[in-house]
């Protein structure tokens, strides 16, 4: 209790920023010559284990045991300073003098072509690479440590004029003076913080990394407007763990080649720029630069000269000339120390990113700081410690009366002044009416729903649409929210077509089985629904979004539609390991509309038309997406892709005679998706899928109608030059490849590289067919091939070769637009075929 009381007392003193003699020292470390801030400077209490590092702006916070304590400020390449804590006034400004400071030196040398041959810097980096595996964490057998990580973000580079705008009259408490700016009054607006304390255990054989989350905390917005879990996952993905010993370092949506990767000497230039003999062991300062405008770093490595050739610290930033969107600055700093086995381990990792639309305007500054303590190498733990999921949340104590004091005792470094107030500021924001109105409007724009008490009205992009069967179509709908019920959710809409003069509707009720919103992971619910609406065969869009306004504009003939009456009962269960199981029971009546016809040929050769098709189906689906993360929106999930594959397996059975079902069939489908990261060469998304349908005399609406695209938007999962209902099969395999080169070629072309365009390539192929018993050309017991308005047959199955199309495009146009030139490679004799097409897609990338 005494210890907690002291920690609480220190936390309060820190918050109100009292003077340094009260056991809390705040300060800033600068270069004595140019007054530039020094980051990763060690500030330690002499004779104690208490220490900290300066942040990206040179700031530090240090708790000292007494006013008489001495502190030491030390940094590689600078003279150390020992200071008495009671002589410092908080915040203190400490100037470090470079050990290599010389009045003026002019060195001239002949311009020599850089070469790896006989280059001592390259020989040194090859030694670092050769010793890489023995120095990294995965080179040890057993390791355990405590980890504290903090992600914080805020709006940066705000002017006094901006701060004093009338619109911000009620929000002055949010703005903080930006101490990192040397000249002029600039402000930051802290907006997000997340903290996490974990105990981590690593075992090499069999390999397992187990993280026990002991405590976590973040500033949260109203869950009606923001998916806080998804937001946290998104920021964590932006500010990832940095391992200098990995060949490739994942940052944002790209991969950067590490300066100590196996192939690094091919892509980097290295120079020995200093030898530091004041450190034990001696260090070599190794500066490195990219050879080209690829996704590479530039900076300094400090390598130990003790035979281990380990990285003692590094400061890196991205190549300023690369094609990286919205990033004004990105810096990485890592520090290592020796453990109990004389191996080097990571003690602090810092990643800072400054996002902005312009170089000089306001932006978003964020950082991820991770501290590692209590590092033990070689301690064997029971197998039970490593069992189960890789990440486990340990329940926090329920008897915490002083949350701030509790967190003060957990942190490896106190929060900065601007970070301390984020939690209270976010809570205060939720109570300001103007801010709630702003969030309401933002939610309407971004998600398409308008809050109306316990319900939401929307989505607005479906209120108006057009198609040739319904003509002008108006729709209105909505859904309930958690304020209505945390267990029961309902969704409904009504729509009317002014040409067919028919009403359409949808009504569903969902009951959550785990006391969570059905829009939060892990989902576990049962849902019943009824729907009457139109649909294009083969266009399996989300269940209630087929009338999006943007889909109203289509090329070519678009006259084949269905009226659908669907009664469905669904069950879905998601598990923490990202395995999902779903099941369903449905009754489905389909009626042809437009030029679509259900035509059978009788024995005398005359046609016979059916007015409807009835089926009853049961289905089960399995999905496994290891380590999947996403942002949960109102209508869909936005995936945060990683290196792991995603697998799907589905089975659907039609049952004849059950609930008026007319057919027996068994439909098996399977698919796999994986993103392949290719370092500075970009990345590729590969999707493979296939299906097989068992059954005889099955009409085409129950087979696989392959997904075509007749809009002018580039659709990733559709065939963009295939016509609606053009290809039908009862068995098929398909390949979809999207390759994003991230400007690897265009960045090397003078003048053109200023546009920061990026290359993108795609190839899609699908091959399948119809067995004789389901082929209208060979069996009169199934529906005849469909015809277009001109009476030509417009539906087919595949011949001797797969359908193929490819595209080459430019992305990052105005930083958000992708435009593809698409070519259809075969089946060019089919009616109304376009061999070439230009398609566009909105795509935001870093």
From TrEMBL:
Annotated GO MF terms: carboxypeptidase activity
Key words, A-Z: Carboxypeptidase, Hydrolase, Protease, Signal
Keyword Hydrolase among UniProt keywords: yes
Signal peptide extent: 1-20
Superkingdom field: Bacteria
Alphabetical list of Gene3D superfamilies matching this protein: Carboxypeptidase-like, regulatory domain
Classification via Pfam families: CarbopepD_reg_2, DUF5686
Protein name as annotated: Carboxypeptidase-like regulatory domain-containing protein
Organism: Sphingobacterium alkalisoli
